């Protein structure tokens, strides 16, 4: 296949991908439905050939053709595919680079396959800089489509230790499934770091520039990574006037585009616990419940105890405590990937996922490298928290994490990321959970029965009567 491709969608991500491909010698012809966007991109990328309509775009390619979509998930993807299905033919490949739900991708693949058109679902991580200078790419779909497009995709991807951070993860929606999980972990770690900010800001009364320095110190060792680096920058950013810090003027209603919700939904479907991902999603939802929050503020003194924590007591807890919390979030996500089993033709290689995340993506950092190393030495280890590198990190960090959580709760600060991450680690380490009591409750009012330890037969408690209807 020659190095030529048509690109549909020239928003900020699309135009950056186009620039990336052009820089690597790939012949790109592009189109966007907005004439204004095409004009703007023509100024930004004067050497990029732009088509006036989608038909002209497809005619510019020699068969077998390859078309890349960089449009919002949902209706925009559906409309593009409907149009393209009438213009493309057997052997042509469409690459969906948006955050599509993996089940939608599989439905679309089935529909297009009847015409011999291949649809590759491509998870793209790295934001605008990644698109421009090298993203992490997670592919899923027909193996033949990957074989044909991989030379181009590997060329534009980020690199780690000389290897492209682009790879094939399985059939169907495997690529978009892994991207959903990636974003779920991203939600969780962002919430953990936001919790830390709130403890330092509201709990300790630290000024923003000092909090930025704390994040700078955190960006080393096990916790080093892009999201911690980003936290340092946003914590210390001044507002436009230069008289204060930007974070103090930001509306706290947090947006979300759905991938975090989809990760939690997939976890429910597959029977996997992802409490920190779920807590992060729920907290964003709660942040937007204006009426509920305003009514509560009228009746509860939520800010009364703020600024009563000592930074000298809190800061020493952060390094190892946050490392433990981040490891917990990653473990939840990789457990979800592992639970997919052979849903995508074969079991997704979790080490391969970690290798793709080493560079270019939002989750890049030291912990991803250590996950790859751990799964390399212990490939069948389902819970890498028990691996040689992570086990001592968790053992060292769980007490500081609990202490950090206790400090936050003592001054009335909600820290859903920290609390759920600690709860996950503590639950895994218990020989018996409180759920044994729930089993008796269920039997008491619902006659559901319970199993005794070491037995697989349902029995009932003394409240059960054989003559109950």
What features would you describe in this structure?
The protein is α/β, with parallel strands linked by helices. It has three domains: 4-172, Rossmann fold; 179-428, N-(1-d-carboxylethyl)-l-norvaline Dehydrogenase, domain 2; 437-469, 6-Phosphogluconate Dehydrogenase, domain 3 (Single alpha-helices involved in coiled-coils or other helix-helix interfaces, Up-down Bundle), CATH 1.20.5.320. The chain has helices spanning 12-23, 35-44, 54-59, 75-85, 102-113, 127-133, 143-156, 174-203, 208-218, 226-235, 259-270, 275-287, 290-299, 311-339, 350-356, 366-377, 390-410, 416-428, 435-446; strands spanning 4-8, 27-31, 66-69, 93-96, 118-125, 136-140, 159-160, 163-164, 166-168, 450-451, 458-459. Helix 8 (174-203) packs parallel to helix 10, helix 8 (174-203) crosses helix 12 and helix 17 (390-410) packs across helix 18. The longest helix has 30 residues, at 174-203.
Q: What is the CATH top level name of the largest domain?
A: Mainly Alpha
Quote the distance from N terminus to C terminus. 70 Å
Can you list the strand order of the major beta sheet? 2-1-3-4-5-6-9
CATH architecture of the largest domain: Orthogonal Bundle
Largest sheet: 7 strands, mixed
Number of helices: 19
Q: What would the average pLDDT be, to the nearest integer?
A: 93
How much of the sequence lies in strands comes to: 5-15%
Number of strands: 11
Class by alpha and beta content: alpha/beta
Run of helices and strands: EHEHHEHEHEHEHEEEHHHHHHHHHHHHEE
As a whole number of angstroms, the C-alpha radius of gyration is 25 Å
CATH topology grouping of the largest domain: N-(1-d-carboxylethyl)-l-norvaline Dehydrogenase, domain 2
Percent helix among the residues? Answer: 40-55%
